[in-house]
Amino acid sequence: NAGVTQTPKFQVLKTGQSMTLQCAQDMNHNSMYWYRQDPGMGLRLIYYSASEGTTDKGEVPNGYNVSRLNKREFSLRLESAAPSQTSVYFCASRRLGGPSGANVLTFGAGSRLTVL
Amino acid sequence: AQSVTQLGSHVSVSEGALVLLRCNYSSSVPPYLFWYVQYPNQGLQLLLKYTSAATLVKGINGFEAEFKKSETSFHLTKPSAHMSDAAEYFCAVSDEAGGGADGLTFGKGTHLIIQP
Q1: Which residues pair with A4 in a beta bridge?
Q2: pLDDT tens digits for range B26-77
Q3: Residue A78: in which H helix or E strand, if any?
Q4: Which of A43, A92, A96 is opposite residue B101, by nearest beta carbon?
Q5: For chain A, give me the number of helices (H) and strands (E)?
Q6: CB contact under 8 A, A107 and B43
Q7: Inter-chain CB proximity A58 and B102 less than 8 Å
């Protein structure tokens, strides 16, 4: 089925370890996004990529890096994980064109990360 | 800058009763407005969106929302709640300017509880 695929679904890390969350979409969307979801905080944008080859910081980028590997793939890396990064991470993508604000975000199923 | 306020982090209704989830937005330009639903352990799915075509927007699963510019509101309603409606609901806003490449701004979410 077409959509956004995230891996892994679950991960437990120790403080200071590194890991990469992978995201791929097969809808030929231009823009891709990483959000984190925390109880009572809603979804907050970490980084986004408006198009292949570009990335920009969102609301909460500290402690994260991203790579837009190609049009399909957008990865999120934690270089030195901290307990404050315990969260559920969502990747999303969106086609841009026309009144792009109206283009709908399509979300992956999420990656639940626990940092001990 | 745009923002979204969802009134009530938890809303409880009886099965068969009216569902009303409140959302107020702040945007310096005409907004695009969205409601997303998140079922337990899943990603977000689009319920409906407002893109200036009509102020009353119908979505999936019997939900609808009305855009009221004078009140800067976009409340979500459903005439008769079902047990399957129990989920987290997010209101989100995007503006027209800048191509919308920086994604959506989400509210903190409202957890809808359906009492049998």
Answers
A1: A25
A2: 877 778 899 999 998 888 999 999 887 788 999 999 999 999 989 999 999 9
A3: strand A74-78
A4: A96
A5: 0, 11
A6: yes
A7: yes
